[in-house]
């Protein structure tokens, strides 16, 4: 039965995040404007030493191409380090569980996944990953990938206020993001998780003695610190294979709600950082309004359909009076609203952490989650989600200008065909990265179960669609639940390529758009200027985003989730 009290819990949490977001967004703005901020006395000397080590300076600003090259250089180094670590992990220290080295294709998929902030895993953590991989290799990517996304967003936003063609210094942005944002908050969150019962130790495992007899090793490690940056950085990869459904990683409703707060904190705050950087704070609210409208509707639909009676269980012995919705795959230590908030927040923030079995939720619930990955921007992952929303806004203003015969401009900067080409590339690359591999996988016979050919059903169709959508959106959540085998070389290589292209092509487009804006003079508003800091623009942008996303994916939605909704298998 739906726990009404828990509805107040999740409403309070959402209100808390929304209340904190303007203040934290203002802090982010100060960080990326290099304004005086808390901790300067301690952090400035440390950061200066890192800059000297990197051979750079905060006074050196990069153009879009140079900024993109620095992004690729750093992330390529992280990818290479991860690949080699995973491939040779059995020959490296901290392998007490004797995990074997990964196959080349699995190491490629894993390295691509963690480098791109996706954290989609095709392995079992407890048996296929060494402790060294968990506490040395993977955490490096948790910080760098999140910091990369935020740095790119900051650079793109600077394009609206600069006139010299530069966007900032990537190395400086990366360092300041880690030292000023990710590291201090993740440390505080890890402490809170420890207080809530999440383990934090360098012990590899402890031996338990079940009441049924025998012994059982329980995999341990620095779980709290891992989970904190995983949620805060919208990475999503769990310390355990069960992810946030594991009682060790997420033991109670308190840790569940804390996880939802961490996943939404930075994505909800970035619009206010935008307002701070462009020195027009009211401009944050239309963007935030779009995020809140889509997120609230998604949350309402998800809870409502999860609470509805599951028709598949009606008439079964002992389950006829079933009133608890879709209970299969949901942890009983969380109420339905608490579990739903975590799952919707996770997917819509492109975190991808699971606290329930997505393959067992209602078809409408699966469609709701898919839509969050189609938009990638409501609110999306740290930095890149807001960057995608800005591209939607640029396209929307351009289309609106054509409709009314006005010269399109945003924040005093003219929108040209060059901006539109890059924005369209980022938006169209997403469906292409999903649909082309999907057709190849199904038509080429690459999708199969461990016992033979994959069964033909709407659910299996949705499972394969969800896999590629999650990878293309750099999300990381999974639906398959045994519908098909995704650990084959085809899915490892295809998935790795999808994640890399799905990450860096939009980043390239964001920086290109920001770079073109940074070369323009700021024009004063005229009588024909569209007022973007208005409720009208919020409604327009929301409808534009929804319509574009639905049009891009309607055919596959009809064959998968919609077919299940109308009674398909």
Description:
The structure is a single chain. By secondary structure, the protein is mainly alpha-helical. The chain has a domain at 4-280. It is built from 18 helices and 8 strands. It has helices at 4-32, 40-54, 64-87, 104-115, 125-128, 131-158, 170-195, 223-232, 253-277, 284-307, 336-348, 363-375, 384-404, 417-443, 458-472, 489-517, 535-559, 561-565; strands at 62-63, 166-168, 205-208, 216-219, 409-410, 413-414, 448-449, 452-453. The strands form 4 sheets. It has a two-stranded antiparallel ribbon. It has a two-stranded antiparallel sheet with strand order 3-4. It has a two-stranded antiparallel ribbon with strand order 5-6. β5 and β6 (413-414) form a beta hairpin. The model has no long low-confidence stretch (mean pLDDT 91).
Question: Span between N and C termini?
Answer: 26 Å
| Helix content percent band | 55-70%
SSE topology string? HHEHHHHEHEEHHHHHHEEHEEHHHH
Beta percentage is: under 5%
Poorly predicted spans: none
SS class: mainly alpha
Q: What general form does the structure show?
A: globular
Largest sheet: 2 strands, antiparallel
What does the radius of gyration come to? 23 Å
Widest β-sheet, arrangement of strands: 1-2
Strand count: 8
Q: Give the mean pLDDT.
A: 91
DSSP helical segment count: 18
């Amino acid at each position: 039965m739906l726990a009404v009290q828990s509805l107040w819990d999740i409403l309070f949490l959402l209100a808390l995040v929304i209340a904190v977001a303007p203040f934290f967004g203002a802090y982010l703005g100060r960080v990326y404007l290099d304004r005086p901020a808390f901790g300067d006395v301690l952090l400035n000397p440390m950061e200066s030493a890192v800059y000297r080590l990197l051979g750079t300076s905060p006074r050196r600003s990069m153009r879009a191409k140079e900024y993109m090259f620095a992004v690729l250089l750093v992330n390529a180094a992280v990818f290479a380090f991860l690949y080699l670590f995973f491939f040779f992990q059995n020959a490296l220290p901290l392998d007490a569980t004797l995990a074997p080295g990964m196959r080349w294709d699995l190491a490629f998929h894993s390295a691509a996944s963690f480098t791109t902030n996706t954290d989609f895993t095709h392995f079992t953590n407890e048996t296929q990953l060494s402790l060294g991989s968990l506490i040395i290799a993977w955490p490096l990517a948790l910080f760098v990938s999140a910091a990369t996304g935020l740095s790119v967003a900051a650079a793109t936003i600077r394009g609206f206020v600069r006139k010299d063609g530069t966007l900032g210094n990537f190395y400086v942005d990366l360092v300041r993001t880690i030292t000023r944002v990710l590291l201090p908050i993740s440390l505080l969150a890890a402490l809170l998780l420890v207080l809530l019962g999440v383990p934090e130790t360098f012990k590899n495992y402890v031996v338990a003695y079940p009441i049924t007899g025998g012994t059982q090793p329980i995999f341990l490690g620095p779980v709290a610190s891992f989970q904190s940056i995983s949620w805060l950085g919208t990475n999503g990869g769990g310390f355990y294979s069960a992810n946030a459904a594991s009682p060790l990683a997420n033991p109670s409703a308190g840790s569940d709600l804390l996880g939802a707060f961490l996943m939404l904190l930075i994505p909800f705050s970035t619009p206010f950082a935008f307002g701070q950087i462009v020195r027009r704070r009211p401009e944050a609210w239309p963007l935030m309004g779009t995020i809140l409208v889509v997120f609230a509707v998604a949350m309402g639909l998800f809870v409502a359909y999860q609470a509805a009676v599951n028709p598949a269980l009606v008439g079964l012995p002992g389950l006829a009076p079933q009133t608890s919705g879709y209970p299969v795959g949901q942890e009983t230590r969380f109420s339905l609203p608490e579990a739903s908030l975590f799952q919707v927040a996770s997917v819509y923030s492109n975190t991808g952490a699971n606290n329930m079995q997505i393959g067992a939720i209602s078809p409408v619930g699966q469609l709701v989650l898919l839509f969050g990955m189609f938009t990638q921007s409501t609110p999306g992952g740290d930095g890149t989600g807001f960057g995608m929303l800005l591209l939607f806004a640029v396209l929307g203003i351009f289309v609106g200008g054509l409709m009314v015969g006005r010269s399109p401009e945003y924040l005093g900067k003219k929108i040209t065909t060059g901006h539109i080409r890059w924005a369209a590339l980022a938006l169209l690359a997403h469906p292409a990265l999903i649909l082309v591999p999907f057709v190849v996988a199904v038509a080429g016979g690459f999708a199969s179960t461990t016992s033979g050919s994959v069964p033909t059903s709407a659910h299996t169709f949705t499972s394969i669609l969800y896999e590629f959508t999650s990878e293309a959106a750099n999300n990381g959540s999974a639906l398959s639940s045994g519908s098909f085998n995704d650990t084959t070389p085809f899915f490892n290589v295809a998935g790795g390529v999808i994640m890399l292209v799905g990450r860096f092509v939009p980043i390239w487009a964001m920086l290109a758009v920001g770079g073109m804006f940074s070369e323009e003079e700021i024009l004063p508003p005229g009588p024909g200027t569209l007022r973007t800091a208005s409720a009208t623009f919020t409604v327009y942008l929301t409808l534009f985003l929804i319509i574009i996303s639905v049009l891009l994916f309607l055919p596959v939605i009809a064959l998968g989730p919609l077919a299940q909704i109308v009674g398909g298998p």
